[in-house]
Amino acid sequence: MATPGMLYVTMEPQPGLSLDQFHEWYNNEHGPTRLRMPDIFQTGQRFQATDGEQPTFLATYDVTDMAILTKPVYTDLRANRSPREAETIGQVTVKRYMVDLQSSRQAPDFVDVGDETDAAAEGRVLVYVDVSLQDVEGAEAEVVKWYEEEHIGMLQKVPGWLRTRRYRTSSIDTGAPLRLVTLHEYKPVNGLGGPEHKASMDTPWRTEVFSKYLGNKGRRTYSLFYVFGPAPRDLQHLAPLPASKAFVSSDAKTATTPGSDAILQSYITTKDGLEIPYRIEGNTAPDAPTVAFSNSLLTSLHMWDGFVEILKKQRPNYRILRYDTRGRHAIPQPPVPATVEMLADDLRTLLSHLRISKLEALVGVSLGGATTFQFALKYPELVSKFVACDFNISSSDANTAAWKERIGIAEGAADGMQTLAGITVNRWFDPHTVETRADATAAMVAQVAANNVEGFRYGCQALWTFNLREAAKGLCVPGLFVAGEGDGKGALAKAMEGFRATSGDGSIELKIVPQAGHLPMYEQPQSFWENVQHFL
């Protein structure tokens, strides 16, 4: 039988260690690495002491089964530290404690911090109490009886009380002295020190328990200041670091670029095992409004490079999130066809792992445009506005046949994807782009050619059998449509004008980017900006 519990770790950075380095390492490497193992760690959060005592920092991790902490799946994490982690942790005084959960009570309005937004969770108060026992027969039973039958019930009357959990030294922590630990959580505004709280600390039963059964008592108070997700997101502490503190993980899947133009690149893993690379940059404030970008089939998040540079200069208040759509890279086995709804769900998962509660805006093109539109329909509470570009609201038999032909080209020879790339980019781009931007055209051919062949085969099937026409009538998120003037020789803009009028209340505006085809934000980034700046 599983024994749930908690790993809690106290930390005191030594003089000389930059707090930015300490926090950036913990927030972007150490914590997320553990939260990427949900079968072990359910939640993880960091607290800062409010009682003026040291250690200053505390991290807590809810563990599904304490026995797993003795297995290589966990112990190897500590044995195989990155050089950056080894350097940083060597400058921190660390103590680790393992405790088994004994009981838990919570208020009716309690929400776990993992399910709260960062804004709602910030400042939650944690009171930590640990006690040792006198060498008296039955001491533990008597203390537990007092806790369960009087003390916790009285604490529940304290304004702002949220939860009390009771622990004891874990059975896996062999050799550790027995300690009884209680963690009490309160809202930022609470009644600690008030009459109800004082009453809980002054009863005849409590006096008897403390005099007969308890030895030493420790009490600390903390305030919550960071909640981990399985995806690193901390630009705030990355930006002040020198370039020498750039980090690349051993698997090269996570990389950071410190400095005024801080960039964090990493990945998430969906429930079906798909790895989705992402990149965040722009405004480094944790609560900065976020604009996300969804790329087209066969391209990568770098298709937005030119436009993002403009956006960062024109809208420095935005944090910018980009990611690679399902089908760009290797896909989970056995392979299954993608759907537009699946792609919207992938984005939902990405936001959840990054603890982004709502997007300021979502911008997508082609398959990413359909994903954007589907996301606004399915998750209107998660996005304030959207820009959907060069997409159709439903598939057609002719389109499906065309995609099957393209799969045949990609799979037909060893260089099939390279052949498809050349055909595709020439079909996508306006002749003006091909003639005047040879480097950009070649770069896009290379980007398309690098797509995973199997990923393409199953990813493009999202465009075979979808129809959002009926659902579009219920659209309630403000949107903007954009199309390249030459996309489909103007046919796509006409199609978008047709379903624009039947989407939501019909108020969506359609903008046309001249001298651009299927990817106007790539072909003509400045002109694209001029068409969307009023909306963004």
TrEMBL record:
Q: Does the keyword Hydrolase apply?
A: yes
Q: Which InterPro entries match?
A: AB_hydrolase_1, AB_hydrolase_fold, AB_hydrolase_sf
Pfam families tied to this protein: Abhydrolase_1
- The chain positions of domain AB hydrolase-1 read 295-394
* Keyword Hydrolase (UniProt): yes
Write out the entry's keywords from A to Z.
Hydrolase
PANTHER family (UniProt xref): AB HYDROLASE SUPERFAMILY PROTEIN YCLE, MONOACYLGLYCEROL LIPASE
Q: Indicate what this protein is called per its UniProt record.
A: AB hydrolase-1 domain-containing protein
Tell me the organism's taxonomic lineage: Eukaryota, Fungi, Dikarya, Ascomycota, Pezizomycotina
